[in-house]
């Protein structure tokens, strides 16, 4: 390892309000960084069977050796025990979090314990301050919290500000952590773990240099990667339309989940598509640190003031495909401005957008079927497309206004177990469904992936490449296992998955040599599989059992681009995938 700062782990004890630094070159030299280091730290620091809201549940942030050196190595990995699923919690976020941690002089941060009063952490190089946050605890909007901290804390331009909204304070199990306003540690409830520790925010900045081994080789490889990033067609797509570009193609092939997956085609898709939003609402594009692509698209929503009809306020609202699916087609919303208002409310409260949309979609269908009524909803009429009622419902979920909304705050699996409707409660391993009804490979990824996320093994992409072809269970399982194993390397380097087509094994190996590592392509493949095994070992240790995983029947009832999904083929693929995991983990 060339950069000795990368192997430094900052440990913070919120209970005792103390911190210390340890050199963990043993982890960084073997597991690279990011996901690889984080899962090892999670295994070390998280007691077996601990309640996710117990002070001993650690929060771990980790970055990698390419952070700050190469384009699109811009993510930070967070790991924790998830309050939503009860096992592995892993979430990735862009913005400036990764570069801030690296330039502060750390490869990872471990936060343990809990405070007896609201605080936020201020980390600047080797200094850690525990600052009272009573004045920003309970503030209505996460945006306001960000503005206050920007004014109070130093380090403009090179700092990250992570914070939670009211959803995290109230321990909603799918609360997010917002960073740089428009990026999130969204999935699996990190915001609720922050809230359980009375940790409102973290501010990090630093100015430490990052050494390189061979400046000439570095510049040559950097230029090669940069050119590919700005000139490749797929990166141009991300710049021009962002992931919202996926809406119309998925709708065309019948893979866009609509109205709680009662169908996979949405008649109103045009009005929430990337093309429509870019033409009629796009306000600006922004980028994560050290990224030339700028895939983050902000809609400018102009609304007249209530008492001054000739004066307008403009709200900048970030959108992408997953939000369009979960808060648009999934809820039957085609009115663009109302759809943006719903996104804005989710951001204000600090919720994960995917889980929020899926929970509301289940509740709408449960209301239609008579499983719940206005007594449960506190008088709200749950109907597809009714944005005003959905916004009020979100506020009730955050405040947990009665037993029904308290159940919704615990996720769709918990709510459906209590009120019925398990067959159309769209979650896998306890994590609400991503926006791809593409075929069996997509669902294999949701079911078996370590995070139960579409980004685990990209099975949805395999489905789309094979439309019209017969898909065999063995091929599906092999693809998903190999892809998820390789993605452990990408997330250990904290490379944005959008750049996976650029950072192939040869390029990764070359970039690591410049950073002081000497891994062959074969070494990297073996390390990726080992990291995946370690994730599964943690999941199984915490009670995960694939044989007890309930698969909602709705996915077999709605035609996909491959027709009705064959339950036997999917089950066979699950068994083949898990046999490979079991063989590799020596279970």
Strand order of the largest sheet: 2-1-6-3-4-5
The number of helical runs is 25
Q: What's the β-strand tally?
A: 17
Radius of gyration: 23 Å
**Proportion of residues in extended strands:** 15-25%
What's the arrangement of secondary structure elements?
Layout: E1 8-13, E2 18-23, H1 25-31, H2 34-45, E3 59-62, E4 76-81, E5 88-93, H3 97-103, E6 108-112, E7 119-124, E8 127-132, H4 142-152, E9 159-163, H5 166-169, E10 177-179, E11 183-185, H6 190-196, E12 199-205, H7 215-231, H8 233-240, H9 247-253, H10 274-280, E13 282-286, E14 296-304, E15 312-319, H11 321-327, H12 336-349, H13 353-368, H14 374-377, H15 387-399, H16 403-408, H17 412-419, E16 427-428, E17 431-432, H18 440-448, H19 454-457, H20 459-465, H21 473-492, H22 505-514, H23 521-541, H24 554-557, H25 567-585
Parallel strand pairs: 1-6, 7-12
Antiparallel strand pairs: 1-2, 3-4, 3-6, 4-5, 7-8, 9-10, 9-12, 10-11, 13-14, 14-15, 16-17
Helix pairs in contact: 2-21, 2-23, 7-22, 11-13, 12-15, 18-20, 18-25, 21-23, 21-25
């Amino acid at each position: 390892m060339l950069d000795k700062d990368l192997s430094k782990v900052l440990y913070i004890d919120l209970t005792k309000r103390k911190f210390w630094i340890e050199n963990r070159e043993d982890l960084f030299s073997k597991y690279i960084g990011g996901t690889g280091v984080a899962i090892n730290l999670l295994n070390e620091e998280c007691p077996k069977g601990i309640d996710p809201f117990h002070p001993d549940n650690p929060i771990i942030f980790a970055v990698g050796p390419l952070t700050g050196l190469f384009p699109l190595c811009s993510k930070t990995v967070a790991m924790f025990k998830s309050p939503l699923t009860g096992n592995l919690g892993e979430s990735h976020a862009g913005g400036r979090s990764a570069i801030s941690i690296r330039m502060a002089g750390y490869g990872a941060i471990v936060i343990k314990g809990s405070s007896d009063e609201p605080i936020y952490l201020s980390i600047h190089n080797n200094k850690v301050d525990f600052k009272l946050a009573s004045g920003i605890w309970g503030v209505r909007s996460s945006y306001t919290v960000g503005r206050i901290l920007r004014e109070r804390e130093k380090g403009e331009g090179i700092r990250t500000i992570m914070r939670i909204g009211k959803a995290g304070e109230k321990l909603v199990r799918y609360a997010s952590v917002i960073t740089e306003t428009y990026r999130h540690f969204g999935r699996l409830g990190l915001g609720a773990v922050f809230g359980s520790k009375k940790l409102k925010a973290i501010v990090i900045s630093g100015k430490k240099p990052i050494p390189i081994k061979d400046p000439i080789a570095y510049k040559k490889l950097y230029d090669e990667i940069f050119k590919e990033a700005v000139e490749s067609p797929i990166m141009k797509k991300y710049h021009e339309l962002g992931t919202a570009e996926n809406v119309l193609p998925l709708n065309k092939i019948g893979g866009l989940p609509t109205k709680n997956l009662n169908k996979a085609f949405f008649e109103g898709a045009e009005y929430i598509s990337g093309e429509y939003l870019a033409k009629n609402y796009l306000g600006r594009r922004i980028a994560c640190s050290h990224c030339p692509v700028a895939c983050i698209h902000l809609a400018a929503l102009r609304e007249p003031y209530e008492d001054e009809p000739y004066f307008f306020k403009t709200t900048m609202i970030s959108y992408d495909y997953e939000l369009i699916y979960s808060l648009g087609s999934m809820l039957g919303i085609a009115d663009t401005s109302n759809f943006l208002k719903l996104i804005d409310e989710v951001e204000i409260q600090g919720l994960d957008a995917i889980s929020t949309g899926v929970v509301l979609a289940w509740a709408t269908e449960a209301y239609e079927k008579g499983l719940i009524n206005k007594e449960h909803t506190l008088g709200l009429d749950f109907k597809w497309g009714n944005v005003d009622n959905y916004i009020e419902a979100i506020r009730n979920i955050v405040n947990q206004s009665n037993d029904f909304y308290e159940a919704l705050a615990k996720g769709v699996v918990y709510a459906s177990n209590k009120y019925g409707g398990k067959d159309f409660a769209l979650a896998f391993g306890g994590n609400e469904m991503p926006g791809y009804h593409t075929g069996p490979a997509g669902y294999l990824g949701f079911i078996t992936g370590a995070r139960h996320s579409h980004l685990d093994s990209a099975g949805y992409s395999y489905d789309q490449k094979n439309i019209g072809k017969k898909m065999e269970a063995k091929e599906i399982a092999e693809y998903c296992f190999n892809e998820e194993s390789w993605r452990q390397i990408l997330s250990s380097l904290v490379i944005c998955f959008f750049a996976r087509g650029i950072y192939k094994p040869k390029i990764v190996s070359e970039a690591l040599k410049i950073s002081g590592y000497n891994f062959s392509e074969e070494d990297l493949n073996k390390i990726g599989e080992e990291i995946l095994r370690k994730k599964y070992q943690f999941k199984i240790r915490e009670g995960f059992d694939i044989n007890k995983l309930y698969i909602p029947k709705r996915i077999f009832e709605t035609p996909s681009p491959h027709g009705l999904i064959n339950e036997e083929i999917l089950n066979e693929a699950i068994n083949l995938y898990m046999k490979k995991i079991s063989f590799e983990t020596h279970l």
